[in-house]
């Protein structure tokens, strides 16, 4: 009687462990899929792949406020426009420096585009401008293929960041496979011991 209860409890435990392992594998596959359709395209789309050093040539802030008369002017922004011109040491060209790939898409006339929720935007932009003025050389990324003449200060999704994003689903997948493997080994050993 006690043996039957022990076998039943063992089977329930094995079933739960198998469900946990399979659940971890399925969740990791869903995470891989989600990362593959959201983050990987941004990484592969970026043409700024080569890191170099840029020499800061000119830093300017254009204080621009929206028009009160309601007319649409494309050179008018609701925040001060920071423009940083640098000398690309790889080619010797004077180019515009942008904060990230996203900055160029959001506003190609400004080097830095603040988030909408940021408070004290002007103070932050002035601090960034003073940092560029104090450091005459900054690390930057450029396009070695030449399709994009501008440079960026930092990549949104660098290779190390992409590896870190894949770390958690990989650990979950490995853990799930390990649980399934251990349950199957346990079942195999119990069958062998039952035969003997």
UniProtKB/TrEMBL annotation:
This is KCMB1 protein. It is found in: Membrane. The chain crosses the membrane at residues 20-43, 162-183. The gene is Kcnmb1. It is a multi-pass membrane protein. The keyword Glycoprotein applies. InterPro entries: K_chnl_Ca-activ_BK_bsu. Belongs to the KCNMB (TC 8.A.14.1) family. KCNMB1 subfamily. One of its GO terms (cellular component) is voltage-gated potassium channel complex. GO terms for molecular function: calcium-activated potassium channel activity; potassium channel regulator activity. It comes from Tricholaema leucomelas. One of its GO terms (biological process) is detection of calcium ion. The lineage of its organism: Eukaryota, Metazoa, Chordata, Craniata, Vertebrata. Keywords: Glycoprotein, Ion channel, Ion transport, Membrane, Transmembrane, Transmembrane helix, Transport.
